[in-house]
Amino acid sequence: MGKIQKTWVIGDTHFFHHNIKFYTHRPDYFNELIVYNWVRLVGSQDYIIHLGDVGFGRFDRMKHVFDRLPGQKILVRGNHDRWTKRKYRELGFIDIVDDIKLGMFGHTVLMTHRPVDYIDDWAGIINVHGHIHNRSHDELWKVNASVELHDYGPVHLASLVKKRVDLINAFELWHR
Question: What residue ranges define each of the domains in the chain, with the CATH number in brackets?
């Protein structure tokens, strides 16, 4: 029997972005730490959704890193992801999109790079996003998947969403 396929999510890797260490207090070895955790967790047939801001610098350096990273990679473009779709495909991304919507645990999961500011009807929507790095927010419907908040590695999408659904359900029960 084969390994069960999983879906992972990661945001704001910022590979080779020297100054990100100062903005978000990352360790000096953050590139190696992210690669180590990715390789340790993600299987070759697993899906991994990158929520943007992949990296900085020369393409050949990025290619060297991404050639080592397993998984079926999907990119939700971030504000720093300025290469062509063709370049990201050369890094191994199978799709490059602006957002992704999935149904999970009775909710719509909207995956974006930036947290969504406003939706007419938030009922049933959970926004999984990156962009704000090690900052959090008070809105129950938003989940930050930036590496700084997840030990510099991918997080299992279903586990992340299920924890948030449980929190939302507890909040709603408490406020009845």
Answer: 7-174 (3.60.21.10)
